[in-house]
Design goal:
Elements: H1 12-20, E1 23-28, H2 34-42, E2 46-47, E3 52-56, H3 59-71, E4 75-78, H4 89-96, E5 106-107, E6 114-115, E7 121-124, H5 128-133, H6 135-143, E8 155-158, H7 160-166, H8 172-179, H9 183-206, H10 209-220
Antiparallel strand pairs: 1-3, 1-4, 2-3, 5-6, 7-8
């Protein structure tokens, strides 16, 4: 951070404030040619032994750099609280979210399936992968009040199948995950299913369809 200060500056604190609002970027790849290394260093990136690390302060530069990374098959990542998956997010989830049925079962936020603790796959409602690659998406999350992608409010219980299908999808999946946190929703759904089943049985009985089916079976067996 020292390189942002100059001895001639009377108010170095202003330069420090500029650094705070810059976005830390990581560019990683299997191999970098001399030309590629020169290009990245020219744009303010430094080699840390594993990846090229630097700071970018606006969307235009990020778009250009992402395009460059796509061309050369490098991995681009915004390294901050909105773009980095923590190593203990699963532990955080179980600290703040307790079982909702009989103090034993969790519910998948997307399909309502009952899950024991060992069967729960903790999912980031707003996906980490999307936030790590998009400054625009990070700004949207900030407006929605999400300051950390690993915040307990952004973690939901999911079954393995739903977690795999959701991936980095947003839109309707986000809506399903938000309302699916509440067990009342799934109770209502179960009651409606039971009511619908009972209604179908009643209509079949009323129109003598069930008796006709039983008569048909009795002829063959």
């Amino acid at each position: 951070m020292g390189k942002f200060f100059k001895k001639s500056e009377k108010f170095p604190i202003i330069r420090y404030i500029e650094v705070i609002f810059m976005y830390p970027i990581i560019i990683s790849g299997k191999f970098f040619t001399k030309k590629q290394r020169r290009f990245l260093r020219k744009n303010g990136f430094e080699w840390d032994g594993l990846d090229f690390v630097g700071y970018i302060d606006n969307d235009k530069k990020i778009r250009k750099l992402k395009y460059y990374c796509q061309q050369h098959k490098f991995r681009f990542k915004i390294r901050n609280s909105l773009g980095t998956r923590s190593s203990d997010y699963r532990r955080i989830f179980f600290i703040y979210h307790k079982p909702v049925i009989h103090s034993k079962y969790y519910l998948c936020a997307y399909c309502g399936r009952r899950l024991t603790k060992d069967k729960v796959t903790v999912d980031h409602l707003y996906p980490v992968g999307k936030a790590a690659n998009s400054l625009k998406y990070q700004k949207k999350l900030t407006k929605k009040g999400v300051k950390n992608i690993n915040d307990p409010g952004n973690l939901v219980a999911a079954c393995k199948a739903c977690n795999a299908r959701k991936g980095m999808k947003t839109g309707l999946w986000i809506f399903r995950g938000k309302i699916g946190r509440y067990k009342t929703l799934w109770y209502i759904r179960w009651v409606l299913r039971l009511f619908l089943f009972a209604l179908i049985c009643y209509l079949l009985w009323k129109h003598h369809i069930i008796s006709d089916i039983l008569d048909t079976f009795s002829r063959f067996f």
